[in-house]
């Protein structure tokens, strides 16, 4: 290691009083992005990091070349049928971004793809490399083709702040229309006739709260909906059937949906059922009726049906089960598919409509009686619906992966029940899944709760071995067992990789989530500590390097405060480590809308005291902490850069151990650098740091 001197952040005493408690935040000045001192400090941290890790440059380059060598750089996705076209993306060696393309559809079976070869009669829809130009950052927020295939709506971001500019391209002539709309959010939806495009805007707190209608060729867009409740986000979509536009408003715990005939874009949206606190629901059009997936008196959700003329009248179809969380419903002209979660694994359930019956209700009730699940052979895996844009089809496109099986695309034949493998992501360099093995283990938390752990390693790796332990544990987000090319650089060096499926995630259903939020949030952190201890005590691990990002970065900071001695190193990416100060400020993103997730410390003294007891920044003390690498982005609009900057500054000023390193991407957002080669280099940097922690 170098004798490089770390930067010292100045201390400016800032006091705030909440519920009689004085909060002293000596690094609050770092939140001023426009202050030259802030920029100077972040650049000094980057310079310190560069010098401190200079000895890893050779290893970083080696890992980068391994990722690159294992990746099929020139490749094509499996085409998806939509109307008269097959749509797909392709990548080219040496180019950072994907190219969106289509070819005419001449048959029901997708075209045969050969990496490195373009399909005949290819039409380029959107070339990310051409659009990105020399920009250091580039991202597409929307790419949506009209139902008739003639027009493309697309939006771009060149800063990483997730504010996009919307444009329109005539796919028949290649002309980009003069219509241009700035500062919009992700996504959007076309009307059925392609005359109007609906999009959303965000407020100052980065909350999508307005839906606008843009009619092609006009200048004045129409505000069709504005959500005044600061806890709710809004979104807009077109059903697979292209019959309805669906406008959704939702908080963390409550939903409200409106629908509009997609052939009448200037009409009024009708409420399906008014919002009721604690009730979440979604609507899917199925031809003669609606499906409604909801949690009213059904913790893990229930599937119901409703008539088109009375969508708020719900009749139960698939009953609630304590062991099965219903995730989503995809409806087609002749069947429906339910994506579910059970015992920590995902699954697919097919509901084939009955061919007899006088009414749609009789046919759909027959589908429930004849429903079946698709079987998969591995002990750990993740499966879900893939791109299925066609409403009338006899095939289901699905995606499948495991910790040893690369991402795979299948078509499932509904008539023959045959799974047809269309493509498995190539892993070059002689990768053999038989050389690796995956396990499901269970750790025991302090309250006796069993915590699932997914583990993968090479078969020839002896135990105990250095281990990367990954965790998240918020928003009911599940970290499912999946494959990673970059991870092979760890496994082939004798590492174990494990995922701690802690409470606050959704791996074991809605209750698993409820037991790790609000004033039970500490369960998330103590579960992770319990898993880290279990990995050592049960002989899996000799050294544990913890890794997590965003809300998982909060987990990293909190778990390290609880048991710093368990970890040989910690990688915290865009970490939400200053949670209390952020949630106390309603003007910031991740505040009012987040009160249903974390609680409201601004108005509730008990929540304030509870959060102050675990938030990482507030609880740094003088103990010896393991080496910590915090990675953030200056333009992140979700977890602001100053959170990890303040955290590292306080760690360095008050604690022993370390070193404590901060890496700030000065031109990126929440997802880090945008180009694939840039992203590989960033991952190689993190992996090189981890490898040193685990082997030195």
From TrEMBL:
MF terms (GO), sorted A to Z: serine-type endopeptidase activity
A family per Pfam: Peptidase_S9_N
Keywords attached to this entry: Hydrolase, Protease, Serine protease
Keyword Protease: yes
Chain ranges of the Peptidase S9A N-terminal domain: 6-425
GO annotation (BP), single: proteolysis
Residue intervals of the Peptidase S9 prolyl oligopeptidase catalytic domain: 483-691
InterPro entries: AB_hydrolase_fold, Pept_S9A_N, Peptidase_S9_cat, Peptidase_S9A, Serine_Peptidase_S9A
Record-linked PANTHER family: PROLYL ENDOPEPTIDASE-LIKE (PTHR11757:SF19), PROTEASE FAMILY S9A OLIGOPEPTIDASE (PTHR11757)
Protein family membership: Belongs to the peptidase S9A family.
Protein name: S9 family peptidase
Organism: Nonomuraea diastatica
């Amino acid at each position: 290691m170098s004798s490089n001197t770390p930067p010292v952040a100045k201390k400016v005493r800032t006091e705030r009083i909440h519920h009689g408690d004085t909060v002293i935040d000596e690094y609050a000045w770092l939140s001023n992005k426009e202050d030259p001192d802030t920029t100077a400090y972040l650049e000094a941290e980057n310079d310190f990091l560069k010098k401190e890790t200079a000895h890893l440059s050779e290893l970083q380059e080696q890992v980068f070349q391994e990722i690159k060598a294992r990746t099929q750089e020139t490749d094509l996705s499996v085409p998806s049928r939509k109307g008269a076209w097959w749509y797909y993306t392709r990548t080219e060696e040496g180019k950072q971004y994907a190219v969106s393309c289509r070819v005419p559809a001449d048959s029901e079976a997708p075209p045969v793809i050969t990496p490195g070869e373009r399909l005949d009669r290819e039409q380029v829809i959107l070339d990310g490399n051409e659009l990105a130009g020399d920009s250091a950052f580039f991202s597409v927020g929307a790419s949506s083709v009209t139902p008739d295939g003639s027009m493309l709506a697309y939006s771009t971001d060149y800063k990483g702040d997730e504010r996009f500019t919307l444009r329109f391209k005539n796919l028949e002539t290649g002309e980009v229309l003069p219509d241009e709309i700035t500062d919009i959010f992700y996504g959007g939806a076309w009307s059925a006739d392609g005359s109007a495009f609906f999009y959303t805007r965000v407020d100052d707190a980065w909350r999508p709260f307005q839906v606008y209608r843009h009619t092609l060729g006009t200048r004045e867009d129409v505000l069709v909906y504005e959500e005044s409740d600061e806890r709710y986000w809004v979104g807009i979509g077109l059903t697979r059937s292209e019959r309805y536009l669906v406008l959704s408003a939702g908080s963390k715990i409550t939903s409200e949906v409106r629908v509009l005939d997609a052939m009448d874009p200037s009409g009024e949206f009708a409420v399906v059922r008014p919002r009721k606190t604690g009730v979440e629901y979604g609507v899917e059009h199925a031809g003669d009726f609606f499906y409604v997936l909801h949690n009213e008196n059904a913790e893990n959700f229930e599937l119901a049906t409703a008539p088109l003329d009375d969508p708020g009248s719900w009749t139960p179809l698939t009953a609630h089960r304590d062991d099965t969380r219903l995730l989503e419903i995809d409806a087609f002209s002749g069947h429906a598919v339910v994506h579910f979660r059970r015992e920590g694994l995902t699954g697919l359930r097919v509901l084939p409509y009955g061919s007899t019956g006088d009414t749609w209700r009789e046919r759909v009730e027959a589908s429930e009686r004849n429903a079946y699940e698709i079987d998969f052979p591995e002990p750990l895996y993740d499966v879900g619906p893939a791109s299925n844009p066609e409403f009338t089809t006899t095939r289901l496109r699905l995606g499948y992966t495991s910790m040893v099986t690369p991402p795979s695309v299948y078509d499932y034949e509904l008539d023959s029940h045959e799974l047809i493998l269309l493509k498995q992501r190539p892993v070059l360099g002689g990768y053999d899944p038989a050389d690796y093995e995956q396990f499901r283990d269970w750790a025991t938390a302090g309250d006796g709760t069993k915590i699932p752990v997914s583990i993968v390693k090479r078969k020839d790796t002896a135990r105990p071995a250095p281990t990367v332990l990954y965790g998240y544990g918020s928003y009911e987000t599940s970290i499912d067992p999946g494959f990673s090319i970059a991870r092979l650089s760890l496994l082939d060096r004798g590492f174990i990789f494990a995922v701690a499926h802690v409470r606050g995630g959704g791996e074991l259903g809605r209750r698993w989530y409820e037991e790790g939020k609000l004033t039970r949030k500490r369960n998330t952190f103590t579960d992770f500590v319990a898993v880290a201890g279990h990995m050592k005590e049960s002989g899996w691990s000799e050294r544990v390097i913890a890794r997590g990002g965003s809300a998982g970065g909060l987990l990293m900071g909190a778990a390290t405060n609880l048991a710093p001695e368990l970890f040989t190193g910690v990688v915290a990416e865009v970490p939400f480590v200053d949670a209390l100060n952020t949630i106390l400020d309603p003007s910031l993103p991740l505040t009012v809308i987040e009160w249903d997730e974390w609680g409201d410390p601004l108005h509730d003294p008990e929540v304030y005291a509870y959060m102050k007891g675990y938030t990482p920044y507030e609880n740094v003390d003088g103990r010896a902490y393991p080496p910590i690498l915090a990675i953030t982005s200056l333009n992140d609009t979700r977890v602001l850069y100053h959170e990890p900057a303040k955290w590292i500054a306080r760690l360095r000023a008050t604690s022993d151990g370390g070193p404590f390193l901060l890496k700030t991407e000065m031109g990126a957002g929440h997802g880090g650098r945008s180009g694939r080669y840039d992203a590989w280099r960033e991952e190689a940097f993190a992996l090189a740091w981890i490898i040193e922690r685990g082997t030195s």
